[in-house]
């Protein structure tokens, strides 16, 4: 009888230990899952920031191109005026 009682106690202790190990494994898996989720969120944020930076750079480049085009148009307009003024100047000089 004593050996049967000791066996039951030992079996109960082993069962408890198995449950504890299973709970620990579940907790570890949950922690890993949370860490992976955090890492994924951080990576997503980085990607979004990079995309925003790229969009800003593209917008800046477009603005610069537009400004350059406007300057070229102004220069071209200015050249016409300068040409006229130069022609008028030349007329005065040659008179």
How is this fold's topology laid out?
Layout: H1 2-94
Region (Disordered): 1-95
Biased composition (Polar residues): 79-88
Biased composition (Acidic residues): 21-78
* Helix and strand sequence: H
Poorly predicted regions = none
Number of helices: 1
The rough form would be described as: rod-shaped
Region (Disordered): 1-95
Biased composition (Acidic residues): 21-78
Biased composition (Polar residues): 79-88
Detailed description of the structure:
The chain has 95 residues and is mainly alpha-helical. The chain has one helix at 2-94. The chain is rod-shaped, with a radius of gyration of 40 Å.
Brief digest:
With 95 residues, the protein is an all-alpha fold. It has one helix at 2-94.
Features:
95 residues
């Amino acid at each position: 009888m004593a050996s049967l009682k000791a066996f039951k106690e030992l079996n109960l202790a082993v069962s408890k230990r198995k449950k504890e190990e299973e709970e620990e494994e579940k907790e570890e898996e949950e922690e890993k899952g949370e860490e992976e989720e955090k890492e994924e969120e951080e990576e997503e944020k980085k990607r979004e920031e990079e995309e925003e930076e790229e969009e800003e750079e593209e917008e800046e480049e477009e603005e610069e191109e537009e400004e350059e085009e406007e300057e070229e148009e102004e220069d071209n307009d200015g050249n016409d005026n300068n040409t006229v003024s130069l022609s008028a100047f030349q007329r005065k000089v040659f008179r």
